[in-house]
TrEMBL record:
Native source species: Haloactinopolyspora alba
UniProt protein name: PH (Pleckstrin Homology) domain-containing protein
Species lineage: Bacteria, Bacillati, Actinomycetota, Actinomycetes, Jiangellales
TM helices/strands, residue ranges: 27-44, 50-69, 180-199
Keywords: Membrane, Transmembrane, Transmembrane helix
Highest taxon of source: Bacteria
Length: 203
């Protein structure tokens, strides 16, 4: 009996999809390597505070990733589509799922590697499920489309979140529509950690 996917009983599911950790590690191998290097530098050069930051970085990153891959799923039943992420589960009646959009998007910034993304929308254009190419396989995209009986709208070329929002504003998050805000949210904590280490090392 498969108990890995929470939510609807497995016997009622037409399709159960899970993200691929191998795909994720391949997509973010440079980022993962950078975080490992940062943790090692903090441990070797940061003293007690650096060691604490290194341990928090390692434990927090691995813990969140492990939790996500244990929890995340997209389940199609005869009556609904259930998309489960890290923090929430969204249940949508099958009859409300009307549109699928396939878009090739950069991983983080316009010049970064691109990956295929599948957005599943309801009749009001709200995103009810998203299979990001950084951790979902293209075969999962095809299987979900077959299970839902949808033919996707395929966007030509490479689309950023801001560009996708012009035609499907409710498909992407605020951070994807505002890349500068996303950059600040990532950069500011990093700068704060660096400043804290410098101040600590000069005491």
């Amino acid at each position: 009996m498969n108990t890995a996917v929470p939510g609807p009983p497995q016997r009622s599911a037409d399709l159960v999809l899970r993200p691929s950790m191998l795909r994720y590690l391949q997509a973010y191998r440079a980022t993962t390597a950078m975080l490992v290097v940062i943790a090692v530098v903090l441990f070797l050069r940061g003293g007690g505070v650096g060691t604490l930051f290194a341990l928090l970085l390692a434990a927090g990153g691995s813990g969140l990733m492990s939790l996500y891959f244990r929890r995340a799923s997209v389940v199609v039943t005869p009556t609904e589509l259930v998309a489960t992420g890290l923090l929430r589960r969204r249940r949508t009646p099958r009859g409300s799922v009307t549109t699928a959009v396939s878009a090739t998007m950069p991983r983080s910034h316009p010049r970064s590697p691109t990956f295929p993304h599948l957005f599943v929308l309801d009749g009001d254009g709200r995103r009810v499920a998203r299979l990001s190419g950084t951790h979902w396989l293209e075969d999962d995209h095809r299987r979900l489309l077959r299970a839902l009986g949808l033919t996707p709208q395929v966007l030509r070329g490479v689309s950023t979140g801001k560009e996708l929002a012009r035609t499907h504003p409710r498909a992407v998050s605020l951070l994807e529509r505002r890349p500068l805000l996303k950059t600040l949210l990532i950069a500011v904590p990093g700068v704060a950690v660096a400043v804290a280490l410098v101040l600590t090392s000069t005491d």
